Amino acid sequence: MRNEVRTEAVAEVLNADVTITAGEMRVEATESTEVTAVGDLGISSSGGSSLTGKGTSLAVGGAVVINTVLGDANAKLENVAGTVSGALNVLATSTISLDATLHSYMTTGADAKLLNIAFNTLGYEPGNLAFQTLDALIGLEIGDKNAAITTASIIGGGLEAASVTVKATHAASLTSKLDSNASSAAAAAKGAGGQVIAGNLVSNAVVGGANASITSVPSGTPITTAAGDISVEADDASSLTATDAMLSAQSTTNDLLFGVVNDVAQKLMDTYEFTTLSGTRHLKFGDTVYVDGSIYKFMGDTASDVDLANATYTDLDLWKLMSATTILPTSVAKVLSTVASFKGGPSKAKAGMITRNEVEGGAFAWVEDATLTAEGNITVRAAERAILNATELSSVTAKEATTFIIATNSVLAKAEAYVRSSILKTNDTNGDKEHSIMVEALNLLVANADMNLTAEGKSDGLGLLFAFNTVGYEANNIFFQAAEALIGNDYLTDLVTDRNTYGATAFAEDSGLIADHDVIVRAESKELAGTGSLDSDITAQALNDLGTVDGDQDDEEQDAAFAAQLKTSMIAIGAIADDSAEENPVTLTVETLAADAQWYVIASDGRIWQVLAEDNGAGETVLNVYLANLLNARVGNDVAVKAKNDRVLVDRLVNQNKLDKDRAAAEKKGEEFKGKLKYGSNAASAGGVLASNKVNSSTQAWIRGNAFRYSSDETVSDLRDGDVVQVGDTLYRYTGPDQVRVTDYDHLSIDVPTALADGDTIRISATLASNDDSTTFKAGEIYTYSGAGGADIDLETLLGTDPGDFTLANPELSIDLSDAEQDYENNTAQWTDLGTGQSYEVTLKPAKSA
Fold first, then answer.
1. Where does 141-180 have alpha helices with state H?
2. Would 287 disulfide with which of 153, 298, 348, 510, CB 3.0-4.6 Å?
């Protein structure tokens, strides 16, 4: 089954002049896609001989399911100038969800072979099945990423509006469920056996992001607001929830048809002569009585006037409780099979699961090569939230049980907000507000992985679990990941992938940030959950107590009461929703990371919060709840073998008899006999776990480079429109004509021969002097010719003989930028006052644990 959905929403205004005298201007692209795919597979088989176990009962099948969703939204304003009386909004919104479910069920009387392959992707090109299979198996990253990017942008132009908002919002959600059940139940008088081989290969990938930007806005035509803010915001939320469960079971029954007899007996038991409501009766041997769902058989000869309602059915001399297995007990069948040397067939179950789950997201907001002036705040903000919840479960039951899980879970995401080579200025003309410039990045990565396998056998059991969980690392092939886990070093990673930095980054470079209040550059990797601190009744000591298990009844009751109180407080601040009316409301537990300072609050549905004891700025300690970067991985491997022999005495006698015969045969031949008596039961079990958990995340913020190109104490050789000069604490932008050396020319001095005309320009290729040494022509200089000219002129010869015909056209400029020369404050035709900034703040707020 293959499902592919492609969507796109585009809204653009290009190369236009606009004038809106009443109302707002909105350029909006909205895309919403919801895909639900359900696959059901059912296969059954029965056959073969119930006497000998021979014959065929074979079930073979599987499913290949590929679900792909590709989509994006793009809102753009390019080279648009003019005025808008209201708000200017450039908005792109994309919401994509894929819910993919595959159920598979197989049952057979002997052999079962089941294979399920499921590939679910958001933002990946579907590719061919072979490449996708290799990628899922060993992680070669063969598929082409076609990330579902939501983009909002303003490029070039110059607009004035009441306020300006450029916002990209992207939400991608993939929910994958795969459950498979393969079972074999073989039964015969003798020789019955069966085998189950099952496998799941699952790959789930989400790639998406949000980009918001203002770029290439010249200083001569800036984007300005008359009474409002300018905001550039990118918000991405990418999530993947994957559940993969596998159940494989094989059972074998060789009972000499006792089971058939007992089935007949069970049917016979459904008939009886009397019940406890039959009153007083005359009974003879073999009469049956129905008593509260059970059948009792009268074992006496005869009896008269028996009150069936009050008879003592527990009297074993008179009554026998009947059941199907008491007709012909299966243990007797096993004994007789041993005596008759009847052998059963194999009972094997082998199951393997390989899963690969990857979430890759990104939020980018930037201003570059642009001039923005706002009568309000200017905000450049990128927020990324990436969540991966993965559950892998495998259970195998048989006489010989073998199972393995290879699970790779990876979360890659970053948030980046920056201003580069730009001028941002906030005004407060009325003097009644404080307007700031904020460059902020928030990056939250959460990975929850739960992997468990169980193997239960009667003779042999083997279970192996390989788990590779990464946050901020490219998920390379599983062989390298396994090697790195074994040697404890990740240097192999660099051999197969570029090491990228994931996390939150905010910066301003080579830009003028001029605000009448604060300039803040902030990067964070945790976010306050809700609207405030926990209720004052929730104390650090109470959290400590809840995070400690004392094991007594009083402690359990107190913990339950406090957990309920904690949930009420978290609901009150909006950290979690009130689910009291739901059938299964979540419960909370606490893990103490640092007593009196730091805790994890864990919900029964897998969500996790970080609680920190912090100063509220008034000298008081409060408890704040945060969402923070987190890798929470749990692995479990349970391999059990239960060997049982309920016919050990018979085995002893049978094997002793065989040993005696073998000894007699050896003595008759005159050979030494080395046989030994062996009987009983054998069993072996083995299991292993190889797990690797790696986190690579950074939080960075900086302001770097000058906001201005020159200072007023310099003398420079060129000055261009838009250049910024610092004069004391004030910045001025040059708006006059470019003052630069001439670079255009008609000829090179080495051109031979050359047609030369009056007014032509010649660039000197190599330094040379006139014949009379009166003039030196330097390489790179450009001269203008004044003379009669002619055809086939040797320029270097002419420069030597007639230097007076050439005038320097591109002398090196010497521009004095002193205030005395430029008169910045009064020369408004060439200089614009950009003002000064008040304060700068660079803030790093990484999570305290990950």
1. none
2. 298
